[in-house]
Amino acid sequence: MSDQPQTRFLGKDSPIPTSPEEAALDYVPNPRPNKPYLVRFAVPEFTSLCPVTGQPDFAHLVIDYAPDKVMVESKSLKLFLGSFRNHQAFHEDCTVGIGERLFSEMQPHWLRIGGYWYPRGGIPIDVFWQSDEPPAGLWLPPQEVPGYRGRG
């Protein structure tokens, strides 16, 4: 019997799900549940589709969370985020929906997501969501994604 948690995707050939609703997320035990710390996922090549034109939209996502009993397994997160490449939704729906789903399923102490979207119609749209105030004493590094500067 292995001490490793059972995961559906880790170490296996796993196709990208066709939709976020079809995507499953795996969670693994937090090895330090009594220590407040921050986990960050930077996703510089996130894509989804515009719900009006069907054209691709691109974003740099930054997901920060303070785990409680479990952590999201990174390959399942990659597959979940990849499932948005054929998903039609506005920037706000994608960003907030990802944050709410992770928070609902994982139940961390705290979670925030920043969606730094590249221009659509000449206007970059940045979307931010967090579950609540961060826990006292949790170190919060800035997300430091520069604002869109175009060709400079």
TrEMBL record:
<dbReference type="Pfam" id="PF14489">
    <property type="entry name" value="QueF"/>
</dbReference>
<dbReference type="InterPro" id="IPR029500">
    <property type="entry name" value="QueF"/>
</dbReference>
<keyword id="KW-0671">Queuosine biosynthesis</keyword>
<dbReference type="InterPro" id="IPR016856">
    <property type="entry name" value="QueF_type1"/>
</dbReference>
<feature type="active site" description="Proton donor">
    <location>
        <position position="57"/>
    </location>
</feature>
<dbReference type="InterPro" id="IPR050084">
    <property type="entry name" value="NADPH_dep_7-cyano-7-deazaG_red"/>
</dbReference>
<keyword id="KW-0521">NADP</keyword>
<keyword id="KW-0963">Cytoplasm</keyword>
<feature type="active site" description="Thioimide intermediate">
    <location>
        <position position="50"/>
    </location>
</feature>
<comment type="function">
    <text>Catalyzes the NADPH-dependent reduction of 7-cyano-7-deazaguanine (preQ0) to 7-aminomethyl-7-deazaguanine (preQ1).</text>
</comment>
<keyword id="KW-0560">Oxidoreductase</keyword>
<comment type="similarity">
    <text>Belongs to the GTP cyclohydrolase I family. QueF type 1 subfamily.</text>
</comment>
<feature type="binding site">
    <location>
        <begin position="91"/>
        <end position="92"/>
    </location>
    <ligand>
        <name>substrate</name>
    </ligand>
</feature>
<feature type="binding site">
    <location>
        <begin position="72"/>
        <end position="74"/>
    </location>
    <ligand>
        <name>substrate</name>
    </ligand>
</feature>
<comment type="pathway">
    <text>tRNA modification; tRNA-queuosine biosynthesis.</text>
</comment>
<protein>
    <recommendedName>
        <fullName>NADPH-dependent 7-cyano-7-deazaguanine reductase</fullName>
        <ecNumber>1.7.1.13</ecNumber>
    </recommendedName>
</protein>
<dbReference type="InterPro" id="IPR043133">
    <property type="entry name" value="GTP-CH-I_C/QueF"/>
</dbReference>
<feature type="region of interest" description="Disordered">
    <location>
        <begin position="1"/>
        <end position="29"/>
    </location>
</feature>
